[in-house]
Amino acid sequence: MQRPVFVSYSQADRDIAFELVARIESEGIECWVAPRDIEPSAEWAAEIIDAISAARLMVLVFSTSSNDSPQVRREVERAVFKQVPIIAFRVESVLPEKSLEYFLSAQHWLDAFPAPRHTYYDKLLQYLRRALDARAKHPETAHAMPGEAPARSPPPPSPPPLIDAAAIQRIELHLARYLGPVARVLVKRAACRSTNIDDLRLRLANELESEHDRREFMAALSLQIRP
């Protein structure tokens, strides 16, 4: 089930994240959070990509731990790529480092310290309501309406035989250097829509945020997959 608010957190902040989800949902705002909303036997990466794509907002539980989490970074990158607004709920006095600074420096911050943390939830809920109402009034900017459960997409079919399987595997390994485990899902989906290797490379390059990474990805693959 897709929900309007995606909650991102590091494993060390699991208790905080689920406390936050319980408080938000007590006000009638549905959240998507892993692993609770990942269906049995489902592929984690695919479920997370779909949930972020369908979300209208992301709430990031931001801490020292999430600052250092590759999984959190990938989720934030996907949200930015899909133009999903991010609300950073900062539970520690820490600033974003490395790549997260690029993605979060201009985003909205809500500090949730010093303790007790629950005193800051009302402010977050007020912001969530305003933001969701604003996006509901402009559906062209929203991926899903509040409470709406889009039909679940069937799993993509196997890649067409006209694209060499070994070349697809090399592309997947190279894309994983930039995007991590989600690369496998993205390659599988793009391969089903591509008519040749060049088309596949271009589709996947467009999944990368920076122009430098796109050029580097295309150049490296040109050397790897050409006869």
Task: Name the features.
single chain, 227 residues, alpha/beta, Rossmann fold, 2 domains, 10 helices
Number of strands: 5
Q: List low-pLDDT spans.
A: 141-161
> What's the name of the CATH homologous superfamily of the largest domain?
Toll/interleukin-1 receptor homology (TIR) domain
Integer tally of domains = 2
Task: Report the CATH topology name of the largest domain.
Answer: Rossmann fold
Biggest pleated-sheet summary: 5 strands, parallel
CATH secondary-structure class of the largest domain:
Alpha Beta
Explain what you see:
- The chain has helices at residues 14-25, 44-54, 64-67, 70-81, 98-104, 121-137, 165-179, 182-193, 197-205, 211-225, and strands at 5-8, 31-32, 57-62, 86-90, 108-111.
- Mean pLDDT is 81; it is low at 141-161.
- The protein is built from 10 helices and 5 strands; from the N terminus they run βαβαβααβαβααααα.
- The longest helix has 17 residues, at 121-137.
- It has 227 residues and is α/β, with parallel strands linked by helices.
- The protein has a 5-stranded parallel sheet, sandwiched between helices.
- It folds into 2 domains: 5-141, Toll/interleukin-1 receptor homology (TIR) domain (Rossmann fold); 165-225, no CATH class.
- Strand 4 (86-90), helix 5 and strand 5 form a beta-alpha-beta unit.
Please outline the helices and strands.
Elements: E1 5-8, H1 14-25, E2 31-32, H2 44-54, E3 57-62, H3 64-67, H4 70-81, E4 86-90, H5 98-104, E5 108-111, H6 121-137, H7 165-179, H8 182-193, H9 197-205, H10 211-225
Parallel strand pairs: 1-2, 1-3, 3-4, 4-5
